[in-house]
Each structure stands twice: as C-alpha cells, then as structure tokens.
Amino acid sequence: MTRKIKFSENQLALPFGEGRRSISLPYDTRERAFWFLASVSVLSLFIYFYAVNAIARNTALRGNLEAHLADAGSKIGSLEFSYISLKNSVTSEIALERGFKEAKEPLFVTRTPASSLTLNR
C-alpha cells in the first residue's frame, strides 16, 4: 500500500514511517532553522579558534615565566650565599670600629606570664 506524497514550494514532507502521519515544515521555518544552525556553526568555529589561540599563547607565556623563575631562583641563591659569607666575616673588632657597643645589661623577654597582667585569678 503506497501513497503518493505531494510536494509544493511551501511544504516539505518527510515520508519516514509509512503508516504514520507525515511531518510537514513550512519554507520559512526551514529557512530560519538553516540560518540558526549556520550561525551556531560559525560561532562555534570562532570560539574554537579563539580557544586554540589562547592555549598556544598561554603555553608560550608559561615557558617564558618558568625561565624567569629559574633565573630569579639562581639570583636568590647567589645573594643568599653572599649574605652568609658577609655575616660570617663580621667580628667584634669590625663591629666596634663601626660604632656598635656591647650591651652592659641585656634585656630578655621571659616566657612565664606576669601575675599582674592576668584577669583570670
């Protein structure tokens, strides 16, 4: 049992499932759907190319930052070494020459709390 499908310029019949009612879409709806899908495809391509470009730039920037970080680490290491060598070269005679004096009565902070400062007694 075959039936004849009529086509006109304003209608598209999709004959899937012969026993069921056929679906018809007007030309305006098909045109809107086409332009919507085309716009989504073009927008997706632009987003894809932007994302790939951003990934490539960020990868290059990361490599550059890692190189700078390695340079900074080596500079910090050399500065720390020179600081330790200068610290070890200071003697009492050099300190007295530069105007430092030895403290006669050094003040120390105790770890036991003073009884006059507490409010919980």
Strand and helix layout:
Layout lengths: L10 E4 L8 E4 H63 L2 H6 L24
Antiparallel strand pairs: 1-2
Low-confidence stretches: none
Principal-axes shape call: elongated
- Mean of pLDDT: 84
Structural class: mainly alpha
Helix content, binned percent: 55-70%
Mind telling me the C-alpha Rg?
Answer: 42 Å
Biggest sheet character: 2 strands, antiparallel
What's the end-to-end separation, in Å? 105 Å
Number of β-strand runs: 2
| SSE pattern | EEHH
Number of helices: 2
Physical arrangement of strands within the biggest beta sheet = 1-2
Plain-language structure description:
The chain is mainly alpha-helical. The protein has a domain at 12-90. The protein has helices spanning 27-89, 92-97, and strands at residues 11-14, 23-26. A two-stranded antiparallel sheet has the order 1-2. The mean pLDDT is 84.
Short key terms for the protein model shown above:
121 residues, mainly alpha, two-stranded antiparallel ribbon, 2 helices, elongated, transmembrane helix, membrane
